[in-house]
Amino acid sequence: MTIPVLGNDLTEVIEADRAHLWHHLIQHKPFETIDPRVMVEGKGMRVWDAKGVERIDAVSGGVWTVNVGYGRETIAKAVYEQLVKMNYFANSAGSIPGSLFAKRLIEKMPGMSRVYYTNSGSEANEKAFKMIRQIAHKKYGGKKYKILYRDRDYHGGTLATMSAGGQDERVMQYGPLAPGFVRVPHCMEYRRHQQDGAPVENYGEWAADQIEKVILAEGPDTVGGLCLEPVTAGGGVITPPEGYWQRVQEICKKYDILLHIDEVVCGVGRTGTWFGYQHYGIKPDFVTMAKGVASGYAAIACCVTTEAVFEMFKDNPDDPLGYFRDISTFGGCTAGPAAALENMRIIEDEGLLANTVAMGERTVNNLRALMEKHRVIGDVRGKGLFCGAELVADRQTKEPVSEKQVAAVVGECFAQGVIIGSSNRSVPGLNNVLCLSPALIATADDIDAITGAIDKALTKVFG
User: Fold this and answer.
1) N or C: which end of the chain has fewer CB within 10 A?
2) Torsion over CA of 239, 244, 249 and 255, rounded to 10 degrees?
3) Per-chain mean pLDDT for the chain
4) Is the CA virtual torsion 81, 86, 89, 95 positive or negative?
5) How many CB atoms lie within 10 A of CB 158?
6) Does this entry carry the keyword tRNA-binding (predicted)?
7) What pLDDT shows up at residue 3?
8) What's residue 451's pLDDT?
């Protein structure tokens, strides 16, 4: 593939970046002597930087977002046409794309009913937290306010969502955090918990039962919500063990706890179904989403609830404080739902859910083949086009390799023209997972090129 025309010399752009831009998740000291990376164009699975170098993007925009790939003119046109007609009005009123996308979205989510638009995944999760807290006041005299979250899960970068963050390195130096958030153990089978030093049978159910123990310790009458990712993302691409989610659902019903599923990463096709929770037959009270909703073509996030949750906020119209008194300014932008409608059409018409399942299986199979060759791979796991390989220094002890070594593998892949991800600066001592989340349009050749680069990188770093 030849590089698209990049236009004029980009020296001014690079210098403006160096002088004025504050990048996300990056230490800027090296930019005093090297150029910051500037991405210029994208097409399909490929991106080009300011130097004209082409790379395969195996992480969908760096943070699991560009689900239908780059260069989708129909999405751009849908956004353009909507912005010319009506770009914005506060979401205290409706809009044509906002109403139509809400309808289309709910059609994909049996049991769910209402869509609250907001600005980002972090904020979508905060909306659910606020709803749970307000329900605690409306229904339980303010007592049932605590929100449980899981070790290694991530729900956002605001102070409230960091307070519900199970990745300790993400929250260091940002405290004190908000009270009322309580951690429950992770469900990672590869690094399974043990009971009295002995292996546990039916580990999925046992891992879920550890949540119940926390509930009982806190007092069931104080716990209002449980927030979990269907597949833990940045904490290590952790797929839940068999029986886990069914038991979680039972526990929530038993103690009248609202179940909040964070689909910011997994939502809208990433795992091979519209939403990750749909693999497990559970019925949540809240589902939040963001990244893949419009594949990054416009900003949009949603907090979706059941009708039962919605009804709690209009049960007494005479109460001046009884409704959900909240607004997200850019939840009123029409570009997001306009892009999301076309994004959903593309996924349907191009059969991308089926492709995600097929290419996800190919990715896992390729990684397992590499596992036979490279003893540094201790575990391979994934769901759809959301896959991870955990790197260990010793398979017997499961001692993790260093984060520096993982970064070296990522760097070697980058040098080969393939962008992969990794867990980093998240879980102390356990930032040792290679993360793959290519666009849902990935072909067999794309997958083979990505895993081929990993093969060569592992050989170079570990021998």
Assistant:
1) C
2) -120
3) 94
4) negative
5) 17
6) no
7) 42
8) 98
User: Token digits for 136?
Assistant: 């605690």
- Beta strand pairing call for 46-49 and 54-57: antiparallel
Using the structure block, give the residue that is written with the tokens 């899960």.
Answer: 153
Res 310 pLDDT > 70: yes
Q: Which amino acid is at 127?
A: K
The residue type at 141: G
Label residue 218 exposed, middle or buried (CB < 10 Å: 0-12, 13-18, 19+): middle
Per DSSP bridges, beta strands 301-305 and 433-436 are: unpaired
State how far the Cα of 351 lies from the Cα of 195, in Å rounded to an integer.
44
Evaluate if residue 5 carries a pLDDT over 70: no
Q: How many Cβ atoms sit within 10 Å of the Cβ of residue 345?
A: 15
Contact 237, 435 (CB under 8 A): yes
Tokens (6 digits) for 155 = 């729900």
pLDDT digits over 122-138, tens only?
999 999 999 999 999 99
pTM of the model: 0.95
Amino acid at 39: M
pLDDT at 194: 60
